[in-house]
Specification:
275 residues, mainly beta, 4 helices, globular
């Protein structure tokens, strides 16, 4: 495979987790103490300040680390809320090297350098990474929102390092959000750290309850900037801890909202199917 790109499953992961982290937290201690609030108030304020959009487009750069290897890529992101996420990857020369098209139940991938493609479901990522990512988690984390397709049970609130911390000990996917083939027995544990000034998410930690493998998805958001009258995360530090550790640094360079857009994806006839 061309050395300019990571393997297929890693490119898919880059798209799926333009979103989640476990690098060192950048929490800053405030000089003045912050007022204590209960979980219900903090969770409501977080939802009130979430990023809302119908269509979204953005340019980004990312650096991917695994073991001692490092890969730098640039790309374009397009999303329709609750519908589709489309990502184009390019190396330094700017020529498209790969394209991803993600929906609620499918992954489509083209590697233009090797003239290969893949079309399948999210269980491929589960098996390759020994972790679980779904479309609703993907879109929420890209924009720094909570995963509202999951319910909320057994929770608490606290203050941690100058941020509000809310812990949700049981999160199951809401019945109406489940696909026919999806298992509703999976229970997630989530920690969320909120900025006390705007109640936007600064860090998210997500893992499965009673998981003996210590699998974890974790994300830190930095340097929010205005997009219209809303705030969008400029930088994300992403990590997956499972059978191997993966770290991704993402920086968004331009974000535009609500202009209807296309999500082109066509596999040339001579491309070879993977898996």
């Amino acid at each position: 495979m061309n050395k300019l790109l990571p393997p297929l499953h890693l490119l898919v992961v880059l798209a799926l987790i333009l979103l989640l982290t476990g690098c060192k937290s950048t929490r800053s201690t405030l000089k003045k103490p912050i007022k204590e609030y209960g979980f219900d108030y903090l969770y409501a304020k977080m939802l009130e300040n979430q990023f809302n959009f119908n269509f979204l487009s953005a340019k980004f750069s990312l650096t991917y680390y695994e073991d001692k290897g490092k890969t730098d890529l640039r790309g374009q992101l397009r999303m329709k809320n609750d519908s589709i996420t489309w990502i184009s990857f390019s190396p330094a020369l700017g020529i498209e090297a790969a394209r991803l098209n993600l929906t609620d139940d499918s992954i489509k991938f083209i590697n233009r350098l090797n003239k290969k493609y893949f079309m399948g479901e999210y269980d491929l990522i589960d098996s390759l990474l020994n972790t679980t990512i779904d479309f609703s988690i993907l879109q929420a984390m890209i924009v720094g929102n909570d995963i509202t397709s999951y319910d909320v049970n057994k929770f608490k609130a606290s203050i941690d390092g100058g941020l509000y911390r809310i812990t949700i000990q049981e999160r199951r996917k809401i019945k109406k959000s489940l696909k026919n083939t999806e298992d509703d027995a999976r229970v997630l544990v989530q920690n969320i750290w909120l900025n006390p000034e705007d109640f936007r998410i600064r860090q998210v930690e997500l893992k499965e309850l009673n998981d003996g493998d210590n699998k974890k998805l974790d994300v830190v958001y930095k340097n929010y900037f205005p997009v219209g009258d809303q705030m969008f995360p400029e930088e994300m530090f992403i990590s997956i801890t499972s059978q191997k550790s993966i770290l991704i640094e993402v920086k968004f360079l331009k974000v535009e909202l609500d202009e209807e857009m296309q999500f082109p994806f066509r596999v040339p006839g001579k491309y070879e199917k993977l898996f």
